[in-house]
Structure formats: C-alpha cells, structure tokens
Fold these 2 entries.
Entry 1:
Amino acid sequence: MENKSKILIIEDDKYISNFIAVSLEKQGYEVLVADSAACGLFMFSSHHPDLILLDLGLEDRDGLEIISELREFSDIPILVVSARGHEKEKIQALDLGANDYITKPFHMGELMARIRVSERALSKTNSPTENIYTCDYLTVDYEKRRILIDDVEVHLTPIEYKLLLLLISNQGKVLTHSYILKHVWGYTSTDDAKSVRVYMANLRRKIEKDTARPRFILTEVGVGYRFADE
Amino acid sequence: MSSNYKKNTLGSAAKTLIMLVLATGSSIAMSYLGVGKESIIMVFLLGVLFSSVLTGSYFWGILNSILSLMAFNFLFTVPIYTFHIYSSNDIILLMFFLITAVVSGTVTSKLQQQIEISLKNENTAKILHQISSGFLPVSGQKSIMHQGISFIKDYTGFDSIIELENKEIYNAYDVLPTGNHLSFEIKSGTVKLGNLLVYNKNQAFDEQIELIIQAVSTQLGIALDRESLYIEREKIRVAMEKEHLRSTLLRSVAHDLRSPLTALSGAANLLADNYETLTFDERKTLVLGMSEEITWLTGLVENILNMTRINDSQLLIHKEFEVIDDVVSEAVSHISRLLNDRNLIVELPKQVIMVPVDGKLIVQVLINLLENAIRHTTSQSKISLEIKEERDFLKIIVADTGEGIAENIKENLFDKFVTLERNVTDGKKGIGLGLAICKAIVEAHGGEIFTESNVPKGSRFIFTLPLEG
C-alpha cells in the first residue's frame, strides 16, 4: 500500500471522532484526534498532518476563526464538518479558505470521497496540465477550445466556457457563488448570484443529458456548485 | 383670540348704538305726532331691553340706559336741547326710567345668560355621551388613541398628543404640535397609563372644555385598559394553543421514536453479545436494518426541526432567485436512494426559470412530497414530477399511481399529525408532519398547495410558487 496521508480530526464529540478515526484507519490513513481547538492547533504544529477535518461547532473557539488562523500560514486542505441548515456558516467557511464541507449526518462513503478529492487536488497542483480533459461522455480540448458531448461538438459562450474550466479545475470541490463571480466575472457582489445561476443552468442544458439528474454539475442549494469528480 | 374679543365688543357697541338711534328716531317721530313724553320714554326702555337681549350682557343695557337718559333729557325735557332739567317731575321720571332700565336690562341679560348656560350644559352632556359611547366600537390601541385625539380636536378645537408610560408618543398629525401644553393623566384604576397633552395655545380652559378633556382622558383610560386586557387574553390563548401543539408533537414524536429505537437497540445488543455465533449474512442483515432505521430517524428529526421552526414564529424564509432545475435536482438526488424500483419521471421546463424561493425549504417540500409518493406506492410504480410555467406563477406537480387519498383524511390532509391508520406494508408509517410542513412552507412563499385525483389512479399533489418576489 502506498504511503497514505496523515489526517487530523478536530471534533469534540467523542463518538463521532471515534467512528471517523476507526473508519479512516481501516482505509490505511494515519489518524490524529483533537477534542478542542487549542489541542488541534497544537497537534497541527507538532505533527504536520496532510489534511484537517474540522468540526465548526467546537466549544472553546469558533471554527471559522481557526480556518482564518490556519490560512495565514498554511495551505493544508481543510474539510469542514457542519450541521445541516447552516448554509451561511458553510459559505463563510469556504470563503475563508476551507476546501470543502460535509454536512452532518453524513455517510462514511461520502466522507471518504471528499477526502480523496482533497488529496487528489493536492497531488494535481504538481502534475503538468494536460491538453485534453475527458470524463464520461464529456471531452474538453483546451488547446482548440472545443467541447464534445459524445463526440459531437457543442457551442459554449465565452462565459460558459470559463465557468466550465473553473469547475473542472476545482473538481469535487464546492465553489460558492461569490467565488465563481470573482473568478469568472472578476468581481464580487452578493446581488449577482442570480446571473451565476442563470449561466450555470444554461451550461447544464448544454452538457447534461438529464438536467434533473445532472452527471457533472451538481448544485448545493444555498451554497454553490460542485463538479462531479468520478 | 383677542381680535375675536374685540370684534365681539365692536358688534355689541354697534347693536347698542343702533338700538339707541332707533329708539331716538322713533321717539322724535312720536313727539311730532304729539305723543306725551311719559309714553316716549317707554320707547327708550324698549331700546334698552333689546340691547340687553341682543348683546347678552347687562353692561350694554346699562350703557344704553344712561345714553338713552341723556338723549331723552336733551331732546324732550324743558329746556329742550340742553342737559338741564327744570321740572322736578322730569327728574323723577328720569330717575325711575334709569332704575327700571337698569333692573330690567340686568334681569333680561341674566335670563339670557341662564338660557345660554343651560344650552351649553345640554350640549356638553351630549358631547360627553358621544365621547363615552364613541370609544365602545373602537378596538386596537392606536385607533383608541386616535379616537381620543380627534374627540379633543372636534369638541374643543385643540391639538393634543398622547404620551404613554413607556415613553411611546402617539401623534395623530403629521407634525408634532408645538407651544405650551397642559397635561392630563390617563388612568385605569390606580395605574397610570400615560398622559394626554393638550396644546392650549396659552389659553385657559373654560369649565366645559376642561370637563370634555377630563372625560376623554377617563374614557381613554378605560378603553386602553380594556384593550390591554384583550391583548393579554389573546396572548394567553395563542400560548396555550402553541403549548398544546408542542405537547402533541412531543407525544407523537416520542411514540414514533420508540419503535425504531427498540429495533435499533435490539439489533445492536444482538450483534454485541452474539457477534461470533452469528453468520456473516445474519450480521449483514442486522446492520442493514439498523442503517435503514437510522436513515428514517434522520429524516424524522429533520422534519421535526423544520416543524419547530415553523411553530416558533412565522417561518423565517430567506428568498433568493434560484433556477428551479437546481432545486429539483437536489431533491431528486436526495430521494433517489429510496426509490428502489419505482420509476421517477422528471419533466423540467425548456427555458431557464428563476423563482424567488428559500431553496432549502422548497427542496424539503419536494422531498416530503416525493417521499409521500414513494410511501404510498408499491415498487415498479410510476411517479412523476412536473414543472409548468404559468403566467405569473410556477406550478409543480408530484403525481403517483398509488391507491389515492382515503376519503376520511382528504379534508384535513395538510393538518398536522394526519396519517393513514392502516399499517403501511414496509412498516414505515409517516408521523404526519410532512404535508403540514409543505403547506406551511408553500404558504410562507405566497403559494398554494392542493391535491387532485390522478387518472387512471393515484393522486396528484400540486403546489404553486409566485414568480415575482
């Protein structure tokens, strides 16, 4: 087995951290568990983990604070665990630099998938970008700026093309509306999430076969969009 | 006000003068006709009476009598055209004239004043009655205060505002009146509710006005007290209703939690105690059962949380323009695990439609409706979800091919805790909150939810969402 990553779990609920730790160890990961923010930050600096699983509802400190503190000096992937219905908190966490989030209650399989995505994102930054991206029936030719669906070319407007590239380069990661606005349109204004939605819906109509059960562009209602990775 | 007073004086003076001139004129005419001065003096007496009556004040009567005396003396006593009197007879005549004129003038004007006062009293009594009965049909704190202020304006002509004990100021006009004001307490029993401030424009109030203002402030106290009692009672009623709802919810939840918890703890104990002796397949079945039970519990908790959010206050919705596809696809992906062999057909509109909704809540509505459809259909059945754009609203239809809605629950289908009594085949009875939540959410968005029969069988759940925020 290859050298698996070291994961730091910061979670104050013992049952949850226990079952996550056991499941991750079964998958061959090295696991560190911290039950408070202070302990977590200490373990981060002493053990140099590869990824952090952070519960936002800690007792001693606000999880969002920890994210911004870590981001001052580290690019370590942070996966946020938050309760359902706290959309604002998720968006804040993502905008502060968290890589992804997962909502309680979650399936172990879902958590594993998110961890794999974050790992892949880590390794990808080092590998050279290829000229052609292929996933299922979608092919993107970066050099010729061509999009093929089942080998049939579809025409995308420049903004739709930019959106698609942004999504593909952040595969598996949730992009908030304001993140997308900033990277495609070049500015952020919270009122303009509407246009992101419209462009995304149009893009989806062009590359998805069944828009009700999208294959590529998944919506996280109230938060943003995610490009399916597998 | 002082100019008014001046006007009054001028008017009275004019009336008196006219009376004097008329009396003098007619007495001159009569003396030409040869009428004796004893009769002529009666004409002057008449003039004095008239001026007393017309001016309503004995001052003018007395003034007129003196003037009349001088005129008579000048015109009719010897020597004529002088103010001298030779005859003692004339002196006595004039003295009696003066006494009679003053007495009768005074009495007349007193009478006049009495009449006026009683008229005024009658009027005041009427006003007081109107004030006390005027508050009866008014309800609502604001309307009561408005009524009080307009009574003061109507019956006394003064502007006023009401200052409640909590420093809240009620002003019926666009701008706050300025100037001096007098303050009247508004009381209910011994409790002070506030002050009625009447802007008096530096004028003292006469008895009538003071009485009216007192009456208004008393009635205000009574009406406001009545109002606060009413509000209190309403609050208690709502609180009781909420409490009742909460206890029903708790009871129902506790009941519904018991059976899955029993199953879960049974299975978990069995696994912990007999792990070695159970076969692999047996373990797997137990664990799958637990996982399924837990999924159901999770959904239940989600709905209960939503329900408490709805119960706690008016549902807090945070609307944003969402593309309806996004909402539908999230709901569909959420329930796809529950579908088994059921065939879900989704029809989305061709164009991109934006609708102002709270995305998460509408997803919950769709999930609840789809789960409901799944719960009431057997595997292999067809379920469809259709979105239609109408002129100014969006119509969302969830249709199933189940056994339709039982007649006995059709009427109150969207009420809380309504479920089929009959056991559902897979044992997953709903708690009867799903549709109630749908109704609350849809109505909070300004839409409607209702059902129809599906052809040839099953039912259609339809809800609308307005397209304009």
Entry 2:
Amino acid sequence: MTGQLRERCRRLLQDGAVQVVIGYGVSTSDGMPHPIFVRRPDDVDKLIWNEQCMANLTTYLTRDAVKALGKPAIVVKGCDARALVVLEQECQIDRSAMHVIGMACAGVGSPRAPKCASCDVHVPAAADEVIGEAPAQTGPADPPYAELEEFLQKSPAERFAYWREEAARCIRCYACREVCPTCYCPRCIVDKNRPACLDTSATVKANFAWHVTRAFHQAGRCTGCGECTRVCPVGINMRLLNQSLARAADEHFGYRAGTNRETPPIIGAYGLEDKESFIR
Amino acid sequence: MGRIGVFICWCGENIARAFDMDELTEAVAEIPGVRCAIHYKYMCSEPGQALIREKIRSEKLEAVVVASCSPHMHLKTFRAAAAAAGLNPYLVEMANIREQCSWVHEPYEDETVAKAVSIIRMTVHKVLRNRALEPIRVPLTKRALVVGGGVAGIQASLDLADSGYEVVLVEREPSIGGKMAGLSETFPTLDCSQCILTPRMVEVGQHPNIRLYTYSEVESVEGFVGNFNITIRQKARYVDIEKCTGCLECWNRCPSREAPSEFDYGLTKRKAIYVPFPQAVPARPIIDLNSCAKFLRNECGTCLKVCQANAINFDDQDMLVTEQVGAIVVATGYRMYDIGREQENAKYAGYGEYGYGQYRDVIDSLQFERLLSASGPTGGEVKRPSDGAVPKKVVFIACVGSRDNAKGIPYCSKICCMYTAKHTMLYKHKVHDGQAHVFYMDIRAGGKGYEEFVRRAIEKDGARYHRGRVSKITEENGKLIVRGADTLAGAPVTIEADLVVLAAAMRPATGVLELAQKIKLGYDEFGFLSESHPKLRPVETNTAGVYICGACHAPKDIPEAVAQASAAAGKVQVLFSKGELTREPEVASVNEQTCAACFACVRTCPYLAIDKAEIRDRQGNLRKMTARVNPSLCMGCGTCVAVCPSKSVDLEGFSEEQIYEMVNGLI
Amino acid sequence: MSEDFEPKIVAFVCNWCTYLAADLAGTNRLEYPPNVRILRLPCTGRVDFNLIIKALEMGADAVVVSGCHPGDCHYTAGNYHARRRWILFRELLETMGIETNRIFFSWISAAESKKWQHMITEITDQIREMGPYTAYHEISEATA
C-alpha cells in the first residue's frame, strides 16, 4: 500500500492537483511513523503506511501554518475520516478544497489501539479515493462503549476517587487539546481571562474542571479517534469521558458524531421530545 | 471601579422587620468596593431617590446597588434616578432582599441576615463589572411591505396608507381581492361579498400611498427590522399595464376560450387574454401562455392587432424590482384541502370515496359560492355543473378534512359550520322547493349573531341537519347516492342528491413555507405561521418587524381576519411612531478575533440574530470567518454564550465577568 | 452530620419564570429555608456547565438550575437548548462520579411559587441529611 500511496501522491503533486500531502513518514529519532508534510514530488518516497500510523492527521487541517501550504491531500484512516465530517459541519474545512486519501485499515498499534476492537470503519467513508482492500472480517466488532460500561461498574465514590487521582497526575500540558482535531479554537477557553472561567494552575480542583470542560466541549463532536489518550504523557484515559458523552448522544439522540454530515449537530439543535425525566 | 453606593431600603416594615438595619448596613459597608452604605425608609419614594441622586454626586459614585425589592418591581425607577444624577443607568443593579429574603425567612435569624448580606455582596460584585451602556439606535424606513392582497392584506394596507405610511402591496395573482372576491354573500348578515370588498379594492388601487404589485411575488428578503431590502419578481404579464387603458377590446376579440377559469374554480372557461373578474384591480388583462395560440402555435395575434394603446408585448419578461421597507405584514391567506385522492403530501389522505373530481356534481364550497354569486357562471341561479339542472336536493358535508386525524388534519377549520349554514339558506332562498341536508360532526357557531344564524337556517329555512359522517358517494341514474349515518337517530341515512357540496378544510396557501423561510418565520406542522405569543403577541412573530394576519396564521373568518389585519397595521404604526428604533443594549456581541467560526451560536440563536461574517484585510483578502451578532435582532437570552466553547461571545448585562464575580461573591 | 451544618445551595434561575416564582413566593409570604442563593440570569439557555462546576468549587453543597417550562420560554427555545445540554452533561458527571443527586434541574413557572417553596425546602432537607459535599470540597482545597 505504501508504494501505491507514494505513486498517487507523486501524481497529485506533479499535476498540481494539490500543493502538499499530509501523511506519515519515519521519524529519525525513534523510527516510528510521524506526521510529515510533503510538498515536492521528489519527496513522496518519504511517505509510509503501516500498522503504526496512529496519528489522526486531520488535526492539521485547521492550522494556519498548514493552510498556508496550499491545497492539501490528506492520508486518513476510517476513524480519522469521521473528524472531517465534524470539521465540515462546523465550517472549519472546505471539503471540496482538499483531496482525501483513505487507507483501508485492519487496525493500528501493537498492541492494538483500544478503539480498533470496536471499529466499524475499516474502509474510510467519503474519501476521494481508497487505497487497499477492506480487511477480511475477523468476527463482529466489540460493542462501542464496552470500556466505559466496565468502568461504570465502579461505585460513584470510586469513580470520583479515580478521577481525583487522575486530576492529581495531570500536568496541564494540553497535549490532549493540541492533538484533537475538533479542539481548534484559536483561543481556548482556559486561555481566556476576564473572567478566567477556568483556573490554569495544575491543582486537583483546576485539573478536574479542565477535564470536565475538555470532555463536555466534545459532546456530540468527539469521533473517538482516541488521540487525546494516546498522547497523554501521564496516561490519563480521557476516552472514558469522551465515550460517556458519545454514548449519551447515541442513546438520547441517535446521533454519532462524524457519521453523517447531513444530520445537524446536536448542540445548537433541540427536540421537543428530548428526555425530561430528570427535571423536576 | 471602587466607588459603589449601596442603598438599603426598609420598605417600611417589609424589610426592616427582619433585620437590624444599622447592623446590616455596617456589614455591607465592609464589602470591598463599597464607598458608602445607607439605609432609608422608602428608597423608591421621592426623598429616597433624592438621597441616591445626592450621594451619586457628593460621593462621586461609579455604580449603585439598591437593596430592596425585586428588580422586576423597581429597576427602571432606580436606573432613571441614577440617570437624573448623571450616572449611566446601566451601572445600577438591585439586590432583592424583600421578595427573596425578608418576606420568606425568619426575621433576625443568623441565616436570614447572612443571606441578605450575601445577596447584597453578590450584587456589589456584579455591579463592579457593569459597563456603561447606551441604548442601541437603529435607523428606520417608515414604509411597509404587505404580502397578499386578500381582505386581510387590503385592510392592513389601507390602515397603514391612511395613517400616512407608504405601503408596498405584493399579490401573486393578477388581481387583488383574494378568496373573498369570489364569495357570494357573507354570514351572518348576508351582505354581498363583492359589494363590501370591491370599493376597498378600488381604494387600494387608487391610494397615493400604496404601491401595488400584482402578479408578483417576493423573491428575497434581506435585512432586519426597520431595514428590510425586498426583491420582488414581477412576473411577465405580456400586457403593459401602464399603457393599457382597460378598454378590454382584446378580451372581447380573443378567439380562444379553452382554459378553465381560476376565478370560477374551473366551473367555466376563460379566454387566453383575460381579466380575472370584471371588478379586478388593476382592471388590466393578462395573457395566459398555456392557452394562447400565439405562444402555443405562433398563430393569431388578434389582441396585438386590436390594441390601440400598443400595450400587448409578447416578449415581456419577468422583472426584478427592489423596495426598502421597515416592516412586513404577511397576509398570504389559505387554500382548500385537496379533496381528491391524490395528495401532494402522503400525510393528507384525501377523500376518494366522495368522488370529487370524478362526479361533476360533487363540488367544493368555494365552487358553490360561485354558483350562488350573481356574478358567477350561472348568474346566481343554482344550476348543477353536469347538466345545468336546478338541484332539488343538495347534500352539504362539513368537516371534509378538518378534525379528521386519518386524513392528516386534526384542527377545526372554524368557518365551515357557518358558511354551510349560509349555503343552505341561500340555496333555499333561490330554490324554494329545494331541500338542503347537512352532515356535520358538531356545530361550532361561536361569534356575534352566529348561533342565531344557524338556528335560522334550520328553523326558518328548513335545512335538515344529520349529525354523522358520510361514508361513500356513488352515482346512479344521474343521482348522487350519499350514504351516511345519523348518530343521533342511531340509523344509517341514504340521500339521493342532485348536488353535493364539500366543506373542505382550510390549509395555508401554497408557497407559504418558501416565503416563511425567506422572511425567517416559524410555522407549525401544517404550515400555518407562528405568532410570537398566542395570547399577548398574537400578530407579532419572533422575527422583529414582521407581523402576520388572516388565515396564514390559522383558519379564521372575515371579521377575524380584518380585525387581525388592523391589529398588525397598528403594531406597524407603533413601530413607525418613533424617529428611530431604540433597543435595550443588553445584547450579545462576539469577540471576532478569538471566534473559531464553528457557528454553534448561529445554529442555536432562537432569533436568527447571529450571522456568519467575513473579516477581510485592506486588500480584500479573507482573513477569517467569524460569527457576528446583529444587535437589532438580539433579544439577550444568552444561549449563544452557553454554547460557545471558547466564550468568544458574551452578553452585556449578564456577562461572563459579571456572573463569575457573582459566583465568587456567593459564599 | 453535625447539628449545625447549613447546606449551601446555589440556584441559577431564569429571569422570566423561576425568578418571578421566587418573587411570588415572597409576595405570598411562603416561607422556606434561607440556604439558597439565587443568581438571576436571562434564561436557562444562558447557564453554562462551567457555572455549575464553579459553584461546586466555591463550596456549594447543591446546585439548582431552574427556568420556564417547555413551550413557555421567554426566548422561545432557550430552555430546550439547556435541556439538551443537561441530558449530556449529567452523563459526564455520572462517569466522573460527581454526585448528581446534588444537582437539580427544574421547570418552575412564574405562577408556581408553591413549587419553588416546596422544592427549596425539600432540597435543603435532603442536603442537610446528606451532609456537605466533602468529596468535592476536598479537591477544591487540595493542591497537586
């Protein structure tokens, strides 16, 4: 697939169909795939594709420095491609002004990333072209919220204690925010002062509030790529929080972020029949 | 800011009975930022207000907190008092220690006192972050657009024009007059519909303040209250109505007579060049492309030859014109439920079993109006369509569509009970030996003189009323066999009728949804336009500067439609009564530099007051997109603030800073 | 719980319904415990989840958010938007183990002064029973 990918990208760059390819290349430091931005046809051989291509590259589409490189081609897995739908719904990208190269994918990471167990998008939807064949079915995917449901077996007090511990470990590096394709605000709420809605110090209280905020800002928007959790230097499992909101969106509104661009986002819309039972 | 004056009111005994006012005042004086704290028996009284004014000046106060009753009671009072002393009124807040403290908690208890101090502290915290605001001023174009030239639109236009405002009246048919122009006589007085309407139509046509666009439609609406830009499509008429003298020689000489007459609901044919009806306004003809030989086969051209005024123009094109208005009145009226089996929307199931469209003598009530009308196809004699015979037995069926969930319409069409009673009467007056039968569900005759009218139809004019539904109509030997039930008698009823008249449900006019989307109006599941409040704002809509009247809002009869039209005109007059619009400045605004342009706020705003806007540099290159609030439309609910992830939108009066400061002052 | 524990309850209420209900409770002299602090906002649509967290951080033992009934919103739809956010937010709170039985949502119209009285009385009693929200207050005081 790497060869095919390189040939396609060479052609796209040569023809001037795109000015930059956002793809994976080998890092000189650790030999693992890292994001690279290929601008010349001669450089396409730096592109690779393998099972370690974890990063969700769509996060770069909204960055000014990347936009300045010209029309992009972007390499996406099925899970990554869902972020494109959200970005398009939220007017962050012009889907017609980019070329999306979908990679058929049987799963990434060793051991396999947790998200891959419940993957139902081995072949990216709505890509401009797909490289590779759909992997042979290896049995049904796990239920999507299995990890969360297991966590919810704990009592509320245990859950609180768990997050208190996680908040205590958080160093507020904001890697989770930086890597997230749908965290694209030019000025994040934590960086706002007058008023400072959120305390920026790395105290348990402030970190707790940060994780509530980060998660809730993803309500109905997180596409479950899991990058926040993968890049967290202290290993906080933010997927659990993301999943709880994804499951809520699914259960209450039949909504799964990034699966259908025609369905209006659930925040900013409402239903007369939305659940009432918890309201006095 | 650090010079806050706190004025604590006793409200006679109402507040003072719960606190030691001196102690309370001392506690409040300790709150950081408070320059002076004073208590007085009645702050809202003139001496109380004078005290506030005096302290604002002497202490050079930068903001004021009045701790007394609910802001719903006296915020305006105290803001005015502050303004009189030269302090911006938006730097005044109230701490509600009466309704929400002294009246509901145990006097002198520690917790009660603590709560009062806390309420005042929160309010001091808030007012520290208040900003001086000026009312928003919006320029105002004092002209109105009225959409729809039926009786409601005519009434609204005349009321506005008579009060001195220019009116742009847009009607999509070739003449104004609407449904009412085709009616025979009107309940409950039986005055002739045309006799009362046509003078009003003429008035519209001749009024110096009314610019009439017939055979025209609203193409687009831009702008907002006070400042709407309307584009109107004048459809090609092929007759220059400025040149035309209205001699109607073209109409007399046109050899074609093939097209069904719209005005007579297909009961007669009309010519290819025609005036919809003799009293039309404007009384100018129009050429129907679909039946004119010139257009169909490039033959004829008689009208062109006979027209002395050179008004015929076969090359006529649609024209777009623009008009600036400050307010819009929508009066687009109704149409009838399609009774036949085929429906444009599967939800409406139709009435195939009644044979409408299949049997020529099964007609709807608007067609029957034409048969009763002196200007109608039969000159006012009741003759049935199939053979022109005078029907001796006529069955009227009410609620055809209405109140019938199975057919998709649960609502009552309101006017059918009355006009059906009228139909039986008028029929009896014209056919003395005839018998009218009515199938009905309930008789709803609420209205001045309405119940008496129905009783007269039954008791004096002998209409026979059967409470029940009709299940089927078939045709046998030139008779219509109507099979129904009389649930009061508990027996099936079969009537051999000569004519059947169906009182079909009222539905909003076609195209109203497209119009609603252009103007940004809400509508219900049936397409009726939504008022702003069903009781207190019945002709306003949630779009500022747009008003509704007549049957576009819900089924209604002529008096109601006219009353509502006058109400809508009155609302426009209120709007136009000022030199410019001033609005409360407590509205949202966007920090355009930090806005991520995700437009969650745009999707959320209940008033469509937020737009997607572009920020361009001096060279005109797009720098970024941003949300932008139109302060003329924002009502200040703040829902946008809650959904903005980066808090790049904020609401004056309840800003993030103010609220966070309040929470900081809570405990 | 210690006898003298006084629950701290913060209520974010809309200006047009629940605030007026609280006013009416005053006019009708309907007594209720003084533990509630009322913050007047234009609409429940304005109440962001950050405010609920902020109130807990400030030491609240319970938070109330209350506004107009569905269909009665002064701004047509602010409460519908709020309701939808609450549905989602509650699930997040559950996952984080925050005591959702200390966070109350209600619809109280301008006429329902009795409902306001009863609700605040009930919540105060309930929280008095449950005790202070120590778990959250501890993180507010703790440093990493």
